[in-house]
Amino acid sequence: MDIFEAIKKRRSIRKFSNKEISKQEIDVMLRMAMQAPTARGEKPWHFIVISDKVVLKELSYALSNGRMLAEAALCIILVTDKASVTSPDLYPQDMAASTQNLMLAATALNIGSVWLGTFPNKERMAKVESIISLPDNFEYFSMVALGYPKDESDFKFIDKYDPSRIHYDRF
Ligand SMILES: Cc1cc2nc3c(=O)[nH]c(=O)nc-3n(C[C@H](O)[C@H](O)[C@H](O)COP(=O)(O)O)c2cc1C
Questions:
Q1: Can you tell me which atom of ligand 1 is nearest the CA of 11?
Q2: Fewer CB atoms near the end CB (10 Å): N or C, the chain?
Q3: What is the pLDDT of residues 138-152, one digit of tens each?
């Protein structure tokens, strides 16, 4: 699948089949996530890959925005190593770029994904921390629920192009 097709095909998938995601597929998604651009090339990310169904269920009960985790094959949590960043105002952009790369790679593998907003919501971050604690200086950024879609048509392309949002040379 080319990049244009993957961008158009990616949709938030919240209903998953019970098909497993292979170790090789996980490796591809993580490799692509780590190809994202970062301010000063700092690559502040770590990735927690959760496939344990008990932990997925615990997360789904704890997070009102993450109920679909109970049926997901995997959850990949992106966390920031804050000790590694010298421009603290820019790291959320690094982490967001990586999250998007991961999701596009998932789509190219026909794996469904949905971004679960975590940073900077203190309540959500604390709930995740209560289940998977982090060493000092690490901070939750985002979570991605992953699984093959229950219904392939959930990948349906919706055209979001809006020419009124484009401004040439001046606003
Ligand atoms: C920063 C961010 C946080 C999001 N948080 C959640 C979330 O907590 N739960 C959820 O179900 N979807 C979440 N989404 C997915 C959006 O709801 C979804 O991208 C949007 O409705 C557009 O639909 P699409 O992804 O299918 O194009 C989030 C997306 C982004 C970019």
A1: 26
A2: C
A3: 999 999 999 999 999
